[in-house]
Amino acid sequence: MNVFRLAGDVSHLVAIIILLVKIWRSKSCAGISGKSQVLFALVFTTRYLDLFTVFISAYNTIMKVVFLAMSYATVYLIYMRFRNMYDSENDTFRVEFLLVPVIGLSFLENYAFTPLEILWTFSIFLEAVAIMPQLFMITKTGEAESITTHYLFFLGLYRALYIANWVWRYHTEEFFDQIAVVSGVVQTIFYCDFFYLYVTRVLRGKAKMILP
Amino acid sequence: HKGADMKDEL
Lengths: 212, 10
Hints:
The complex is a heterodimer. Helix content of chain A is 71%, strand content 3%. By secondary structure, chain A is mainly α.
């Protein structure tokens, strides 16, 4: 554990809490892609199956359980509790275009051809692209509420901090997880354009982020 | 070490 890793996990937690609290308080999930949230729930489910096989640390176990619980709570709020507000007309990204290549790749490129390893690899690749329905939705409607953009900012920050964590771990303990690093870098690139808009628009006091 | 042996990251 290093400071980048811890800050990355905290950013991830903050992002998910921001989204949950926003939906709960406003009693609305307008502008939120339910598809992205289902994909994230699928990411956590397939990655954290090792909760049943190995024990790493209390921190590790607690964080995994919290991420799982909060991602399912988010999906529940969007599709059940506040489904009347769910903006399905603008959440039209074709998820199968992500799932099919990701499933294919996880069978081809993995550390071991076992169910748990393939599911873990699937979760890593899927996380890299899971935000695409949300970004697609913002592009389609041309705007995002500032709370939604804060959520995306903390998600992107989490990814950037994980890259710093890998650089640190590579130098201090010669740790290098090729699958996680390559897909993590790809994932971070998706946030770059958004980061630029966030800094130039949202941080300068706009209530909404309106695309140029 | 490789990622396969110890997956301690979230």
